[in-house]
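Page 37, continued from 36.
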């Protein structure tokens, strides 16, 4: 399976290494041609406003939106969760998201960089997972078709809707491969 990692900003190499460790074939996606060659896409953490602007300037926003609308599996982490969300709270007026995951997500919900933290999460079907939260969002509303897999202080931080997964944290930084493995297993 060829899994793309959106390579405009953020934890690109960490996601690619995790995919390689699991036997997948990671492809760094910077162009529409690279996007056309993949079966699934990971949208990494980074800065969501900057990523939104880079998606526009690179010509990738519309092709990714089209592939997602056609059912391409996706896994967004941190800023990637924001990019996949239907509603973005506290975003810039010109900030666009793909709207394929029926959630309302609040940017930087846990606070600023100094408020970043690590936590043990109880993840449905996986048990305890170590999670790294860096200027992390959380979900304030979930749609009827969205399954919440983990919470922090009663806020959803790991969700899925069909073949679209989103985490408010950075599983690529924890050394635990199980969330990427779950994604690969569910979408292959």
């Amino acid at each position: 399976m060829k899994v793309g990692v959106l390579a405009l900003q953020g934890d690109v190499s960490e996601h690619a290494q995790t995919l390689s460790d699991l036997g997948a074939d990671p492809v760094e996606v910077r162009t529409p041609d690279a996007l056309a060659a993949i079966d699934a896409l990971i949208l990494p953490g980074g800065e969501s406003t900057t990523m939104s602007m880079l998606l526009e300037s690179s010509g990738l926003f519309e092709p990714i939106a089209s592939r997602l609308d056609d059912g391409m599996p996706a896994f967004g982490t941190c800023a990637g969760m924001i990019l996949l969300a239907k509603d973005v709270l506290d975003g810039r007026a010109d900030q666009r998201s793909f709207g394929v995951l029926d959630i309302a997500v609040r940017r930087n919900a846990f606070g600023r960089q100094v408020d970043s933290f690590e936590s043990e999460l109880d993840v449905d079907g996986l048990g305890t997972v170590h999670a790294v939260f860096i200027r992390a969002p959380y979900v304030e509303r979930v749609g009827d078709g969205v399954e919440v897999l983990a919470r922090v202080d009663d806020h959803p931080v790991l969700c899925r809707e069909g073949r679209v997964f989103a985490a408010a944290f950075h599983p690529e930084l924890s050394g635990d491969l199980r969330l990427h493995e779950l994604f690969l297993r569910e979408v292959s």
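The chain has a mean pLDDT of 93. Flag for discussion at group meeting. The chain has six helices and twelve strands.
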